[in-house]
Amino acid sequence: MHRVGILGAAGIAPRAIIEPARRRDDVVIGAIASRRAETAAAYAADHGIPAAHAGYEALLADPTIDIVYNALPPAGHAEWTIKALAAGKHVLCEKPIAMTAAEARSMVAAAEGYGRVLAEAFHDRYHPAFLHLLSLRPRLGAVRALRAEFRVDIPYDPKNIRYDPAQGGGAMMDLGCYPLHWLRSVMGTEPEVMTASARLCELGSDTQIAADLSFPGAVPATMFADIQDGPFRGLLRVEAENGTIELDNPCLPHTGHSFSERIAGVYRVYTVAGGTTYDYQLAAFLEAVNTGAALPTGGADAIGNMAALDRIYERAGVQRTLTQASSAA
Question: Which of 47, 303, 304, 310 is found 20 to 30 A from 98 (Cα to Cα)?
């Protein structure tokens, strides 16, 4: 029986790990840790978690915990993931895995050195809808162009960490990492960043970002993310020599999605059955822990996504706020 400890009293944790774990009989949520004892205790009581730790170090020292779910803001991913790995824990780390590719490389090196499993929580990559899209690649033929976008409408609040650049906020980090990952997953290669532009808020984080990419073979791709202007929209479009396919809502297909497919002159609109993305992610992660199976959102993929993200920010001229650890990693 695996026991998961959660770093950070995060709002994402119930649907991302607590509820999926309760739908299984081989894993339980064993502990929650927060910097404040009262926060940890309240979270544990609200979610039926048996142990509440005041401080992340206490959770890492808990011998009953063998898996850590790092739900901290991105600024805390590298430090606490590496410490968790050093403590002998496997780590499922929220996206984006780090603040920079340099941090991601340090995290992956630590996982390899300590012989632990490390994965980035791109849960959508494990859903049957995305797997179906990937299965269509042979029928599509050579890809000619791609487009991916993700937008939500989070009201601007300077106190919201999703707008705080020092904590890893901004459209690219919070949302754009997804469409970037969709494009890389479809192509299976790394892009060159041709151009990029960003709209910034008063804190210096990007509220909107767009990039033109080029994949090997001169395949053009566009990526767009907006954290401020709704309505909610997620879209992935692939144009190829034998047809075109669009997946609406790649991020959360279990809440409603659709495929619009035109291949070899035949048009179809349909959905793919499946449970939540988080259930499939947890199943794959546990399989990796149990058997050593490779994960599509493992170390090499995480480094690749962060490297492309770094280049998009650089091309857009966004001056990022990085901690000393981030810039020195």
Answer: 47
